[in-house]
Amino acid sequence: MKWNKIFILAGIVVIVALVTVAAVAPVFENNPYLGKYLPLVKDITLGLDLQGGVHVVLEAKDTPEVKVTPDTMKQLMAVIQRRVDQFGVAEPVIQQQGRDRLIVEIAGRIDPEEAVRTMVKTAYLEFKTMDGKTVVTGADLKDAIESKDPTSGQIKVDLTFNAAGAKKFAEATAANVGKPIAIILDGQVLQTPVVQEPIPNGKAQITGYQSLEEAHNIAILLRSGALPVKVEVAEKRGIGPALGADSLEKSKHAGLVGVLAILIFMVMYYRLPGLVADFALLIYALIVLAIYVGLHVTMTLPGIAAFLLSMGIAVDANVIIFERLKEELRTGKSLRSAIDAGFKRAFTAIFDANATTLIAAVVLYFFGTGPIRGFAITLGIGIVASMFTAITVTRWLLHLVAASGLVRNAKAYGA
Amino acid sequence: MHFIKLRKIWYAISIAVILPGLISLMLQGLNLGIDFTGGNLLEVRFAEPVPVEKVRQVVAAQGLEISRGIQKSGTTDYIIRTRHLTQDESDKLIAALSELGKNTVLRNESVGPTIGRELTTKAILALLIASVLMVIYITIRFEFKQGIAAIIALLHDTLVVTGIFSLFRIEVDSAFVAALLTIIGYSINDTIVIFDRIRENMLNRKKGESLEDVVNASLWQTLTRSINTVLTVVFVLVALYFLGGSTIRNFVLAMLIGVVSGAYSSICNASPLWVDFKLWEKRAKAKEARA
């Protein structure tokens, strides 16, 4: 027995156990400093399939009036950005795909249907006189704010025109005193108030809303401006928060059972090295979690599956090594040289096997979108990290156990 | 047991598994989900149980044709598949369903027809590119013939999985493509570990030892590893299948079939095929020498 080695070994076990608890369990929740960063898992962004949300692909369409150009796409993106920002969710994703598509992803507690509706409303506002002349349009607007009159309880949207709009509006109202002017949104007449007197200050008002929320939605649309081009929803994937939470809970449960089965199997079949491998697997899981947090990987449902499968890959590397170790021990080598030879011989197999799996993950990354891409990323990280832990951590631990003299019997190593 | 001497049996088993699926693929194709065909999938959960008949009436009243029936999962959840809906149509349908009772929309997915077509091309392209890259890698690290043998084994696994999915009319979606690629990765992983052993044993080959015997010995030396690795992955997949929720069940099922098929094809197809290739080459050379 070499007590210094045993001491190191015990130290490692304690440290890993502490890190694991700190990373996963909410023990420092009430600590003002540590609570900000721990547990590590809470910093992993959940994909919209796990927390609810919506993934939309919008396709811009040519019309006789407006053609789809890089310029209109840029305007469209700006309008959609303004609308999406109004939902107040963290980090919405809006990106152009190809010539005429926008991908919008919003995760969080929103109503997916409502979100899509708000996104694709044309919001073309016009003020028209009796003889059909357009006085001002939404493009002349500076601001639109909803409010509720505290005394009368009337809900309204206050409009403010920009300088040019105010001038046009003043001229039109002066010329139409005593006549109605129609307020039209997306071709629908909202109101036809009669002009009492000229309005020089560029202010107008739309009334008659049932709720403040309704007025709020209209105000958003008016503020963000009209869509510059016709837009269709090419793809929509809305996941309600209920299903997201359900999926997260279920896959956590399934994952735990699956991983426990692996851990037990390893100890039963490989005995001492199996125990070492289980420990290395724990370290592997911690490394992978840290990479997820560090690289801001979004965890999706397929991503969880990939994480669990990468556990399988990590176990596999250990299995290859232990099978080699057994063979080397049978040829009558000493424990130390058998461990070294086992690792050396196992390395090419592990390397080549993982390289080919990595090819599949990379191809998947370039061809997939959304959750599939998440799957590819988690699988890729898993492959690289598993290779690293198997050939460094497991080897080092195994040497340490062998050198400590705690277990000398070659049978315990599977011989 | 001599794996290589029994190889005709292994080939026969593979063909027996693949053939029904292949015939089904040709006759009835795959049960493609909305990811490929385009369409709308609405999953709602009612607060109180609602009879299927009522749900069907409401959908029909919207003038919508129901594709593939209304699927009931649990007592209060319904999956309603229709053609691709505009936002307006979708809103109306949800509003009409609300008249049956209080409900929440679990998911509402809509895929336009162009997106579906793109996914199909992308999926095939991804599988092809991955296969070519793997052959190139194996040719560099091993040899071309092993690359070809490995790819045939991959084709085997792909056919087994798609065949079974076609035969049992299990719905195929974009996650299925991801499953296929992962299966390919796993299967090739298995094959490479065996090829690595063969590469090593060929270097230490004793005089007079036949190719068949070297490969057979390599297969036996790696057998425990092959079985143990599949077992650990199967543990996880079985847990995910029964406990992981309905959303990923088909994905997990594809993986489960593929991983088992991958282990089989690595042992019983890839290495024996390589032996056959080698023997053909030897015979062809001998013929040339005689001529």
TrEMBL record, chain A:
Q: Which residues form the Protein translocase subunit SecDF P1 domain?
A: 73-131
Signal peptide (from-to): none
The segment(s) forming the Protein export membrane protein SecD/SecF C-terminal domain are 230-397
Query: What protein family does this chain belong to?
Result: Belongs to the SecD/SecF family. SecD subfamily.
Predominant subcellular localization, coarse grouping: membrane
Fill in the subunit field for this protein: Forms a complex with SecF. Part of the essential Sec protein translocation apparatus which comprises SecA, SecYEG and auxiliary proteins SecDF. Other proteins may also be involved.
Q: What is this protein called?
A: Protein translocase subunit SecD
Query: Where does the SecDF P1 head subdomain domain start and stop, copy by copy?
Result: 132-229
Cellular component (GO) terms are: plasma membrane
Any one biological process term the GO annotation gives: protein targeting
* Localization per Swiss-Prot or TrEMBL: Cell membrane
The record gives the membrane topology as:
Multi-pass membrane protein
Positions of transmembrane segments: 253-272, 279-298, 346-368, 374-398
Automatic annotation (TrEMBL), chain B:
One GO CC term, this protein: plasma membrane
User: What Pfam family is a match, any one?
Assistant: SecD_SecF_C
Lineage, top-rank taxon, reads: Bacteria
Tell me which SUPFAM superfamilies the record gives. Answer: Multidrug efflux transporter AcrB transmembrane domain
**Where in or outside the cell is it found?**
Cell membrane
Against InterPro entries, the record matches this protein to: SecD/SecF_arch_bac, SecD/SecF_bac, SecD/SecF_CS, SecD_SecF_C, SecD_SecF_C_bact, SecF_bac
Q: Name one GO molecular function term.
A: protein-transporting ATPase activity
Alphabetic keyword roster: Cell membrane, Membrane, Protein transport, Translocation, Transmembrane, Transmembrane helix, Transport
Q: Which residues form the Protein export membrane protein SecD/SecF C-terminal domain?
A: 99-278
**Matches recorded under PANTHER family:** PROTEIN TRANSLOCASE SUBUNIT SECF, PROTEIN-EXPORT MEMBRANE PROTEIN SEC
Q: Which family does it belong to?
A: In the C-terminal section; belongs to the SecD/SecF family. SecF subfamily. In the N-terminal section; belongs to the SecD/SecF family. SecD subfamily.
What biological function has been recorded for the protein in this entry? Part of the Sec protein translocase complex. Interacts with the SecYEG preprotein conducting channel. SecDF uses the proton motive force (PMF) to complete protein translocation after the ATP-dependent function of SecA.
Query: Which protein are we looking at?
Result: Protein-export membrane protein SecF
Q: Which organism is it from?
A: Desulfofundulus thermosubterraneus DSM 16057
